[in-house]
């Protein structure tokens, strides 16, 4: 049976200050690696964004979207699906937001000032999906993380940016404890990064397709990383 491969957590230098690979370069690399698609998830306004916060909100959103838009253009030329999301940092935690787009961002600048609970409610009311990204990257015990299962729809249990296997293991245990759907992604910023993601039975045609396979627990496999 053919399985389709997607990376759900990819950064570009246009949107993320810590990345050195452009949207077009990411698309070409993933095509070369045999992927069927990627989701661009650059760091948002309250994270390590590459876009100046001195710009107006409209200008900032335009700049923020460039990595995704360039990857999308390249993807259409080479046959790689490219979808949009973002990585938001709130109270020391990171969340991947899927299912909302540019027009929504332009109309909802107020999310910058919301607390965790209000932010989650707003995303959900508008049809978005929230994944808790690499919850244990800087923690070594389950007790180190204050449980917030009510603020995430799924847990990222495999992340290529984690430097120790323990971090992914703890994330998986967290998902089991709170009975959450799971996903995984590379958290790719550079060409040299390890590349992983998910395998699914059918091609993803929209970001809603991705949300559905995660929510319905139809991810066939989360690609593991070899970590010492």
Describe this structure in words.
With 228 residues, the chain is of the alpha/beta class. The protein has a single domain, classed as TIM Barrel. It is 30% helix and 23% strand. The chain has seven helices and nine strands. The protein has a nine-stranded mixed β-sheet. Strand 6 (154-159), helix 6 (165-177) and strand 7 (182-185) form a beta-alpha-beta unit. Helix 1 packs parallel to helix 3. The longest helix has 13 residues, at 66-78. The model has no long low-confidence stretch (mean pLDDT 93).
Compressed to H and E, one letter per element, the order equals: EHEHHEEHHEEHEEHE
CATH class: Alpha Beta
Net shape = globular
Low-confidence stretches: none
Which assembly state applies to the chains in this document?
single chain
Using only CA atoms, what is the Rg? Answer: 16 Å
How far is it from the N-terminal to the C-terminal residue, by CA? 31 Å
Instruction: Give the biggest beta sheet.
Output: 9 strands, mixed
How is the CATH topology named? TIM Barrel
Strand sequence of the main sheet, in spatial order? 7-6-5-4-3-2-1-8-9
Structural class: alpha/beta
Q: What CATH architecture label applies?
A: Alpha-Beta Barrel
Tell me roughly what share of residues is in helical segments: 25-40%
Strand fraction equals 15-25%
CATH superfamily (homologous) name: Metal-dependent hydrolases
- Summed over residues and divided by their number, the pLDDT gives a mean of 93
Total strands: 9
